[in-house]
Each structure stands twice: as C-alpha cells, then as structure tokens.
Amino acid sequence: MNREEKAAQVKDLNEILSKAKFAVVADYSGLKVTEFEKLRRELRKNNAQIRVAKNTLLRRAVVSTDYEALTDHFSGTTAIAVSFEEPVGLAKAIAEFAKEYETFEIRTAGLDGTVLSADDVLALSKLPGKDELRAKLLGTMAAVPTGLVRVLNGVPQKLVYALQAIKDQKEN
Length: 172
Description:
single chain, alpha+beta, five-stranded antiparallel β-sheet, elongated
C-alpha cells in the first residue's frame, strides 16, 4: 500500500469513527473469511459495520474523535466495529458472535468518550434495545388509562349487582 492509499484509508476510517456512536475493538485472529462475513452481515442488520486495518492506521484515524483513548488496545490483529445508531444492537451482535466463535475476542469499546471493558460490552448486550424499551413504555402508558377505566367502571357495576341482588331477593 502506498502513501496515498494509506492516507485515504486513514481519512475514511476517521470519517466513520467521527459519525459512530459506539465502537468495539476486537481481536479476530483465527477466524475464517466465511465466519467474518457472517459477522459483517449480522452487523449490517443493526446499522453497524466492522473494519480491519493496520494498527498504525487505526491510531492515526482515531485522532480527534471520541475514541482516542482506545489506541492502547490496537495491537495484534485488530478489527473495529462501529454503530451509527444505538449501541445495544452492536453489542448484542458482537457478544453473540464472540460466544459462538471463541477465537473472536472483544478487547474494549468506546461509548461517548468513555472506555468500556469487554465485560461492560457483554453487560450492554443484555440490555433491551431501543425498540423494546419503546414498546414497554407504550404498554405502560396504555395500561394506566385502562386501569383507571376499570376502577371507575367498578363502582357503578357493584351498584348494579347490589340492585340486582335486592330485586332477586324481593322476587323470592
């Protein structure tokens, strides 16, 4: 790779990292190409991607981004996965892949300028996603008026039952 190609790759990586909301650094040594492509497909479903680059290029690419603190973890065979939306989707996909393929190792991650450990990424993967949280919130919001209607309906309903019982008692 000549100097221009390296500069173009650094610029491309810097643009990606500048837009990213969450980044995971992993060691992919020992993975087959087909396995790595499986991870790429899974990440695309979550509006995320994974890139492989030389460590020196990655160190230059993270300059002036929220992920500068990750440079200490760029050694060996390094892949960096980034998410452009919510971090939970990427964390779930990476954690599932790491569980399935033991040669894939999560080293660290970055979220809002904070460095996370591999255990933090696994904990993040166990959280519900944004869509699940929205569904729970809507369910809770819908349950409140429904409960109120049931309570308000209970008083007249009990009155009707009492009147019906008095009527039945007088008829007998």
